[in-house]
Amino acid sequence: MSNDVDLSAAPQYRKRVRIRAFYNRNGAIYLKSWGEQKFPGPHYVIIGPTGDIYGCAVSEFEAMYQPVAGEPDTFRKTSPVRALRMDAPFTVRTLTDDGNVEVACNQGQAGDWLVQQPGGERQVIPAASFAELYEPLP
């Protein structure tokens, strides 16, 4: 599992795009192409720029996103991430900062990106999407 890969010196990137987000008081399971994303309680529902719907833990969302002035329910991610393009297939177990197993087994392919959020949460970003979503920090 690539949760053991050291990303402390990996290049930093920031998200290019804005998202729409809503607070959800209830738990939910999001069925994604890469697996199930589970939230047992309150979280934010995010609608990405392509219409993709997923969740984010409350503490992580509020630490990483800022509202866009004049655009209701629209946010921009302000916290940088660390990311590495992986040379071989890999698997990630995504844990939120409160210990919730958000995704038990996220499969990445050679060329996909292993991304670590500021709180330590890891995820797979497909190679085809990474350049559209992220830009290197200067």
Give the helices and strands, then pairings.
Blueprint: E1 12-15, E2 18-24, E3 28-32, E4 35-39, E5 43-47, E6 53-57, H1 58-64, E7 65-67, E8 74-77, E9 81-85, E10 90-95, E11 101-108, E12 113-116, E13 122-125, H2 127-133, E14 134-136
Antiparallel strand pairs: 1-9, 1-14, 2-5, 2-8, 3-4, 5-6, 7-8, 9-12, 10-11, 12-13
Describe this structure in words.
- With 138 residues, the chain is mainly β.
- The chain has helices spanning 58-64, 127-133; strands at 12-15, 18-24, 28-32, 35-39, 43-47, 53-57, 65-67, 74-77, 81-85, 90-95, 101-108, 113-116, 122-125, 134-136.
- It has one domain.
- Strand 3 (28-32) and strand 4 form a beta hairpin.
- The chain is globular.
- It starts with 11 loop residues before the first strand and ends with a strand.
- The model has no long low-confidence stretch (mean pLDDT 89).
Put the structure in a nutshell.
With 138 residues, the protein is mainly beta.
Q: What is the number of strand segments?
A: 14
Tell me the number of structural domains.
Answer: 1
Judged by helices, strands and strand pairing, the structural class is mainly beta
Order of helices and strands: EEEEEEHEEEEEEEHE
Helix content: 10-25%
Mean pLDDT over all positions: 89
Uncertain regions spanning at least 5 consecutive residues: none
Computed over alpha carbons, the radius of gyration is: 14 Å
Q: Order of strands in the sheet with the most strands? A: 13-12-9-1-14
**Count of DSSP helices?**
2
Instruction: Please give the oligomerization state of what you see.
Output: single chain
The share of residues in extended strands comes to: over 45%
Major β-sheet, in short? 5 strands, antiparallel
The shape, in one word, is globular
End-to-end gap: 30 Å
